[in-house]
Design brief:
- The chain has 200 residues and is mainly alpha-helical.
- The protein folds into 2 domains: 124 residues, no CATH class; 64 residues, no CATH class.
């Protein structure tokens, strides 16, 4: 995060205009479906997100690489004893995350039609909030957290105004941390004493 902030400050000083146009992936086309109005770029982002999440689910839970990746994330030493190359799996995981981040960033830039040195900051914060709402280590939880965050922000924008949109997200996160720290679908973390008590 510190390196990211340094790169952001460097971009602020090196880019005089601060804001640059970015080519849109789709033209400004919209269509109606009953009472709902859909924009082409937003619909394409939804379809792209569904495809990426589906592909990630298949990769994690239906392939040998996904099994190795989950094993390394749980216990790298035990995975190494089982013959898994933990360093190679970690390198592939970083490459996969970079690829997905690049695709998501391009989709967001195409929708916004502009790029600034501060691009990505809000998306990262909202992604972290969605992950914490859903629960650490839960892919369905991250999806549920993102949907919940989107619904809350949309209602805050509609009823309260744009200045309360981000505030609603942080209030939602605060409430979740107080009421359910593990997230909606996160695994409960029990102490050794609690586990021993349950076994007895």
């Amino acid at each position: 995060f510190v390196i990211w902030m340094q790169l952001e400050e460097a971009a602020i000083h090196l880019l005089p205009e601060r804001t640059y146009a970015f080519p849109a992936l789709f033209a400004a086309v919209s269509f109606e479906l009953g009472p709902f109005l859909f924009r082409a770029e937003q619909t394409s982002m939804l379809v792209l997100a569904i495809i990426m999440v589906g592909a990630l689910h298949v990769l994690l839970y239906r392939t040998r690489f996904g099994l190795a990746l989950r094993a390394v994330s749980e216990n790298p030493l035990a995975a190494a004893y089982m013959g898994i190359n933990a360093a190679w799996v970690t390198l592939c995981a970083f490459a996969l995350v970079s690829l997905m981040g690049g695709v998501a960033g391009y989709a967001i830039l195409s929708t916004d039609a502009q790029i600034t040195p501060f691009f990505g900051l809000w998306a990262t914060f909202k992604g972290l909030i969605a992950m914490m709402l859903g629960g650490m280590g839960s892919l369905p939880g991250a999806i549920l957290g993102g949907l919940l965050l989107g619904v809350v922000e949309a209602h805050a924008l509609w009823y309260l105004g744009n200045e309360y949109k981000d505030l609603s997200a942080y209030l939602l996160l605060f409430g979740m941390l107080v009421l359910r720290p593990g997230g909606l679908m996160g695994q409960r973390i029990l102490s050794r004493e609690a586990l021993a008590f349950r076994r007895v």
